């Protein structure tokens, strides 16, 4: 019987979601890292390899969800299921990326309009108090408003789409578009919780990101591009970043599975199951 069964799991707090994800990740470390390595090797192949990466990410989440509901599934069976939806996973990832891309420019435009109006009003008011310095202060405040609006808007959208591929990985008779809609519906009352979960999960993974991605980039800044030293350090940096991605990717997919489980528990009750399996 799985130690992460639905009989022992109740609606979780923000911290407990990350804790449960970390426990499951460590308990299946070898399996998840092997799958993550396969996924990252596939990502080197354009289009088809990217679809395989997305499908393997869904595979990890499916395996994790099976553990949560006490219905562990063999890797081969789970892989057959996710491979049958290979291109659906790819188009989910593509659609989500496109939505975030559009939202990025949309939030910038809206933020710029609001900031311009506020900046004009503040510039007029502060100009009467501080003189020409008031316009500078107003410009700084307007810039801050744009940045805050952009960050808040993107984080809000990301929270709504956080589990967009998980229903596709778990629920039978669900296509890519329905999977995204399912994420949108399940997360509508839990945006702040998801943001808290993402923040804590990011803090947990930050040391790996710093060691494998950020710190090597610092060394590159001190070297001349095109030099032998730069090429060697760049290659080492790329390898470390690749390894860091392998370490972190399964953790996030497990966290998504736990979030999906928790949201369904809160909204639909216990007794969840992998819908494509006879129980």
Automatic annotation (TrEMBL):
Record has Cell inner membrane as a keyword: no
Keyword vocabulary terms for this entry: Membrane, Transmembrane, Transmembrane helix
Entry-linked InterPro entries: MFS_trans_sf
Protein name as it appears in the record: DUF975 domain-containing protein
Stretches that traverse the bilayer: 39-65, 86-105, 111-130, 137-158, 191-215, 227-252
Cross-referenced SUPFAM superfamilies: MFS general substrate transporter (SSF103473)
């Amino acid at each position: 019987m799985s130690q992460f069964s639905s009989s022992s799991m109740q609606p979780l707090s923000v911290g407990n979601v990350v804790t449960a994800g970390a426990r499951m990740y460590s308990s299946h470390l070898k399996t998840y890292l092997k799958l993550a390595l396969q996924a990252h090797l596939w990502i080197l192949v354009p289009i088809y390899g990217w679809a395989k990466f997305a499908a393997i990410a869904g595979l990890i989440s499916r395996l994790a969800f099976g553990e949560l509901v006490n219905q562990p599934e063999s890797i081969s069976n789970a892989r057959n299921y996710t491979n049958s939806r290979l291109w659906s996973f790819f188009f989910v990832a593509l659609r989500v990326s496109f939505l975030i891309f559009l939202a990025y420019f949309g939030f910038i435009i809206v933020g710029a309009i609001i900031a311009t109006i506020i900046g004009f009003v503040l510039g007029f008011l502060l100009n009467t108090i501080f003189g020409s310095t008031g316009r500078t202060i107003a410009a700084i405040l307007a810039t801050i408003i744009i940045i805050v609006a952009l960050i808040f808007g993107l984080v809000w959208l990301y929270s709504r789409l956080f589990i967009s591929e998980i229903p596709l990985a778990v629920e039978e008779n669900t296509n890519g578009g329905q999977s995204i809609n399912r994420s949108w519906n399940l997360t509508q009352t839990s945006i702040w919780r998801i943001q808290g979960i993402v923040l804590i999960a990011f803090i947990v993974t930050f040391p790996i990101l710093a060691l494998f991605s950020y710190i090597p980039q610092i060394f590159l800044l001190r070297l001349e591009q095109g030099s032998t030293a730069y090429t060697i350090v760049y290659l080492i940096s790329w390898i470390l970043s690749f390894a860091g991605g392998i370490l972190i990717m399964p953790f996030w997919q497990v966290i998504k599975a736990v979030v999906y489980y928790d949201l369904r528990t809160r909204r639909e009750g216990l007794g969840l199951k992998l819908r494509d399996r006879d129980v």
